[in-house]
């Protein structure tokens, strides 16, 4: 069955048009049946001849034949139309499903790319003294610092910020997030006094 509207995608209004046409055909079929009913209740299969085989003279044979013929034609049209309605609805649903799947895929891709877009670093580790608290915590040279306790790219002004956090956190573990090799790494760093200078090394 060809699409009801050429090769362009089916729209809701196409379906509404088809349904309207279906209603019209149903009304015509009903009218034909009413006509048969008015002819002494002759249906689709009652004989049109009397017991002797002569055409019945109590009914309008021409009208009955025409009505019967119209009903058969209209029922065929109706069947074809129902198929079109069904196909149009299938196409609409398939499109909706496709659109929904596409939206979901896009949302997923967006979420993935957001996960991959790494936060901005505000400082880079130049040196780590062996045996220092920084070294023990796993901090490495070239680690880019994204978060250092409460300090991040949004509130970082200068290295004094970090020094202040370190002084206030002596002996208490700090959460440190760095970017290393394109990935985010979380470390726990406890500033404390050690053999070398400062609380970190």
Automatic annotation (TrEMBL):
Keywords: Chaperone, Coiled coil. SUPFAM superfamilies: PDZ domain-like. The keyword Metal-binding does not apply. Residues 71-115 form a coiled coil. One of its GO terms (cellular component) is nucleus. It holds the Pfam family Nas2_N. InterPro entries: Nas2_N, PDZ, PDZ_6, PDZ_sf, PSMD9. One of its GO terms (biological process) is proteasome regulatory particle assembly. Residues 90-182 form the PDZ domain. The keyword Coiled coil applies. Interacts with PSMC3. Part of a transient complex (modulator) containing PSMD9, PSMC6 and PSMC3 formed during the assembly of the 26S proteasome. Acts as a chaperone during the assembly of the 26S proteasome, specifically of the base subcomplex of the PA700/19S regulatory complex (RC). During the base subcomplex assembly is part of an intermediate PSMD9:PSMC6:PSMC3 module, also known as modulator trimer complex; PSMD9 is released during the further base assembly process. This is 26S proteasome non-ATPase regulatory subunit 9.
């Amino acid at each position: 069955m060809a699409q009801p509207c050429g090769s362009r995608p089916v729209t809701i209004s196409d379906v509404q048009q088809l349904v309207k046409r279906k209603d019209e055909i149903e009304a015509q079929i009903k009218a034909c049946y009413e006509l048969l009913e008015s002819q002494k209740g002759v249906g689709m299969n009652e004989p049109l001849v009397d017991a002797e085989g002569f055409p019945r003279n109590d009914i309008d044979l021409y009208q009955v034949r025409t009505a019967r013929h119209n009903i058969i034609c209209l029922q065929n049209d109706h069947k074809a139309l129902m198929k079109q309605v069904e196909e149009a609805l299938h196409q609409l649903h398939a499109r909706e499903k496709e659109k929904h799947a596409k939206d979901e895929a896009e949302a997923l891709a967006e979420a993935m790319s957001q996960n991959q877009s790494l936060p901005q670093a505000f400082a880079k580790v130049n040196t780590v003294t062996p045996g220092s608290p920084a070294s023990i915590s796993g901090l490495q040279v070239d680690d880019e610092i994204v978060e250092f306790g409460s300090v991040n790219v949004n509130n970082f002004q200068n290295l004094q910020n970090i020094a202040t956090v370190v002084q206030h956190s002596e002996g208490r573990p700090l959460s440190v997030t760095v970017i290393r090799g394109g990935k985010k790494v979380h470390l726990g760093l406890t500033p404390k006094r050690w053999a070398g200078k400062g609380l970190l090394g």
